[in-house]
């Protein structure tokens, strides 16, 4: 007798077909890369394998007669506050397969979301709000080290800076696109991100999968990444962008490396990563040349030296318990920007336990790092870039008011191009053509569409940020940075407010 | 005529700047003296140049470089050939830790011993195959996560006759490439799931080709090396961690 596979008895989703509407065009069969819709040629009818449905809603969206509804499977377990279906099914899965639970995106648990406990200020009577439609409003942000003070001299009746400013990167909007590798997402999404970054005056990040030849032209809007697997990392790549990001950690999986599953390592990916087709692309947990802050300094300057000090070097870490002390070390090691990726940060593949339980919320981390760097008098030496769980423009404003210079968005950009958060990126079968390299699937999302959606999203957010700034009576994002007076807490404890350095609403 | 430089009074970034300027002007051969812990020499240099270094270069010699052939008359510190792309590093001495980390192409020939974590995550694609030959012994984690390329470990020119030829966790997680070891390795020293194999005809041809070049670099006798048999360590699967997950 075959061993029963308990997990397969209880599907998560239920494919409901409205037969009165169905015209048996079999579009659903073609759209579902998980093969949940099946055509029976003998009986000339359709049927469903609910166990295969991941809840991506592709069939529902594409069905020409809207004959499909994807629901949570109605079968219910007896109620139990502790042993919810999630835990029961996870135990089944592991008992069936004996493996580590794997998932995608960011933390799915309802930990307190501090953004949702912070409200913003606005002007009333005593100082007037500014209307961005009639007055200039600046979102321009400079990433990189700033001098301790400006020394100005007068030459021939003109004032000028005594010393040249250190190199900085100019962003027209303080929203950049987070590292997502070619391999994890399709080339089309990369092309869309790159072009959107150029037209928005911001940066996108290649992730660690190397850089496709077609993307070198977007160099001045590119951050290249150097992670522990060092995939696709060569001199041309290092020189291709305006910054190099050393990836130490990621909010979705602090303390471990990455495995791009072999299913996603196609011929083209094998070429850029220089690994065998079908093998897992393994990024070790640490960089094996970095076991200390001193070693990190070693790599930062190796990269600077290799690129003749023309590129800024960012260091990305996951927000963990001692994030402030670690960030201080990173700044002292010579990084031009510290990237902090919080608990809610997304991923293409991470063990579920890591995604959901490891790391700390980004809001607390931003504030702690900003405070620590200010106290040590080194805040000007590096920018703080925050990421992980930025869902709307108000989150951006709050992150900046807590002390970030700019933010990265990853998940939000993918949702903009059609992601439905089914959380199965690791399978390489993304039916929306986003997190896949399957040549047929990627056609579903052409680069022009990706570009338009991403561009629209950030343009809209930028306008909202201007409106919010104007309402607060400030006309430049610089005046918001670390300006916690513009924030008030609702329903936070004293300790939380101390860490965030915000007052309670009413104070 | 090679260009001669004495860098004993210079900081590494000055040295690299000077070198780059000379390369820009068309200089293709360098003799550099007074090397004393200078970091990042030739890091990121993309040019076909021939270099002789006298002394002990510091961290990350030739990191990310593409093309230079660097002969070191001395030892090298950690990180030599870090993520190097093309070219060659020849060391008439010993090397520290993490030699050839994530190396993508070119060659590293070390006369003596090397430290820990050497050849981690070397890669290869088609005919671009990096090679590290170690005349002495190696520390733990040699060839860990190897995705391609060749490591040849001889264990001959060593300061540590009492030590095993390679440390623990040899080839852990390797999913491509090959490690050749002269003599024997205790199976308990190998990474999980790995086994030593005898060489076949192809292996012997490959070894002869690379070791001939190695012997020419150091004036060694090839027949001396082949007096003992080699074993080969190759991945048992291209997906050592493929069954790690439950879906």
Keywords:
heterodimer, A: 507 residues, alpha/beta, Alpha-Beta Plaits, TIM Barrel, 2 domains, eight-stranded parallel β-sheet, three-stranded mixed β-sheet, 15 helices, 17% strand, B: 247 residues, Pectate Lyase C-like, eleven-stranded mixed β-sheet, 3 helices, 14% helix, globular
What does this structure look like?
The complex is a heterodimer of chains A (507) and B (247). Chain A has helices at 6-9, 27-31, 58-62, 85-97, 187-200, 235-240, 267-273, 293-306, 323-332, 352-357, 362-375, 393-401, 411-416, 447-472, 494-500; strands at residues 13-17, 37-40, 45-48, 68-72, 100-103, 118-120, 141-143, 152-155, 158-161, 169-171, 175-177, 204-205, 222-226, 243-247, 258-260, 281-283, 312-318, 337-341, 350-351, 383-387, 406-409, 487-489, 503-504. Chain A is an alpha/beta fold and 507 residues long. Chain A has an 8-stranded parallel beta sheet. Chain A has a 3-stranded mixed beta sheet with strand order 6-22-23, with helices on one face. The radius of gyration of chain A is 24 Å and the shape is globular. Chain B is an alpha/beta fold and 247 residues long. Chain B has a domain at 93-233: Glutamate synthase, alpha subunit, C-terminal domain (Pectate Lyase C-like, 3 Solenoid). Chain B has 3 helices and 12 strands. Chain B has helices at residues 12-24, 201-218, 222-225, and strands at residues 3-6, 29-36, 50-56, 66-73, 86-91, 107-110, 131-134, 147-153, 176-182, 196-198, 230-233, 245-246. Chain B has an 11-stranded mixed beta sheet, with helices on one face. In chain B, β1, α1 (12-24) and β2 form a beta-alpha-beta unit. The radius of gyration of chain B is 18 Å and the shape is globular. The termini of chain B are far apart. At the A-B interface, α4, β5, α7 and α8 of A face α1 and β12 of B. β5 (100-103) of chain A pairs parallel with β12 of chain B, so a sheet runs across the interface.
